[in-house]
């Protein structure tokens, strides 16, 4: 039967609510639990074949294994390059529709957490199946809150762009008062009035000439005295 690769997911412990994660890229590094972040070290993919599976870590590219191919209770889990060993093969056993057990094929024991710890950094181990919550795991897709924040920011940007045309419309309203252009005809009327004033001053010049013509009449009075 051909192997197939499933989507990437986190493996979250039912008791501690912490995610299974690799601690490095080299062979033989312990696998531990930590608060779920969806980092590459916490992402795994399931490669199934003939009713069994291998769990491949995204960060290291290595598979979930147990140290020194151990079979005893308390043997720590590790990551190791895929060599096709039985200690790297697991059976996924459903407990509920949500939670599963990871049964190591070579040892017959299930994946557990040391001392039933709730702390970050507690190693994963093999232990006989006691049906405890610390031996049950949920395969869950990583949460991605970042895209939701990105959409909200994108929704706010168009609102800022709409405000720009409104600001441009305001200056257009200020240009409408073209009243100063009508003031130009008023200046033309004032020029007409200035031209009319000199004509009114030339009319009084006629009475002054009649006064100078009346003065020669006085010698006529002297002639009447001689008689």
Beta fraction: 25-35%
Q: Ranges with pLDDT <50 over ≥5 residues?
A: 162-216, 218-227
Query: How far apart are the first and last residues' alpha carbons, in Å?
Result: 173 Å
What string, H for helix and E for strand, traces the elements in order? EEEEEEEEEEEEEHHHH
CATH class of the domain at 4-140: Mainly Beta
Shape verdict:
globular
Strand adjacency order, main sheet = 2-13-10-9
| Mean of all residue-level pLDDT scores | 77
Secondary structure: helix percent: 25-40%
Rounded to the nearest angstrom, the radius of gyration is 53 Å
CATH topology of the domain at 4-140: Trefoil (Acidic Fibroblast Growth Factor, subunit A)
Kindly describe this structure.
The protein is α+β, with helices and mostly antiparallel strands and 227 residues long. The chain has a domain at 4-140: Trefoil (Acidic Fibroblast Growth Factor, subunit A) (Trefoil). It has helices at 145-175, 183-202, 205-213, 219-226, and strands at 4-5, 10-13, 19-22, 29-34, 44-49, 52-57, 63-66, 77-80, 90-94, 99-104, 110-113, 124-127, 137-140. The strands form 4 sheets. It has a 4-stranded antiparallel beta sheet with strand order 2-13-10-9, with no helix packed on it. A 4-stranded antiparallel beta sheet has the order 3-4-8-7, with no helix packed on it. The protein has a 3-stranded antiparallel beta sheet with strand order 1-5-6, with no helix packed on it. The longest helix is centred in the C-terminal third of the chain and has 31 residues, at 145-175. The N and C termini lie far apart (173 Å). Residues 162-216 and 218-227 have low confidence and may be disordered.
């Amino acid at each position: 039967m051909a192997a197939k690769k499933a989507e990437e997911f986190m493996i979250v412990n039912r008791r501690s609510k912490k995610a299974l994660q690799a601690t490095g890229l080299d062979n033989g590094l312990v696998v531990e639990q930590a608060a779920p972040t969806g980092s590459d070290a916490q992402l795994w993919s399931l490669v199934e074949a003939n009713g069994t599976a291998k769990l491949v870590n995204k960060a290291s590219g290595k598979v979930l294994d147990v140290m020194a191919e151990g079979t005893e209770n308390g043997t720590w889990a590790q990551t190791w390059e895929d060599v096709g060993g039985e200690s790297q093969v697991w059976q996924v056993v459903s407990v509920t529709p949500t939670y599963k057990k990871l049964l190591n094929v070579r040892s017959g024991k299930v994946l557990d957490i040391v001392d039933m710890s709730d702390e970050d950094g507690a190693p994963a181990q093999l232990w006989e199946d006691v049906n405890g919550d610390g031996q049950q795991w949920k395969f869950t897709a990583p949460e991605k809150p970042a895209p939701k924040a990105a959409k909200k920011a994108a929704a706010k940007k168009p609102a800022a762009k709409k405000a720009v045309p409104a600001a441009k419309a305001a200056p257009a309203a200020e240009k409408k008062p073209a009243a100063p252009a009508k003031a130009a005809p008023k200046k033309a009327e004032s020029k007409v009035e200035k031209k009319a004033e000199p004509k009114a001053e030339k009319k009084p010049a006629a009475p002054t000439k009649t006064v100078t013509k009346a003065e020669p009449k006085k010698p006529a009075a002297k002639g009447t005295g001689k008689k």
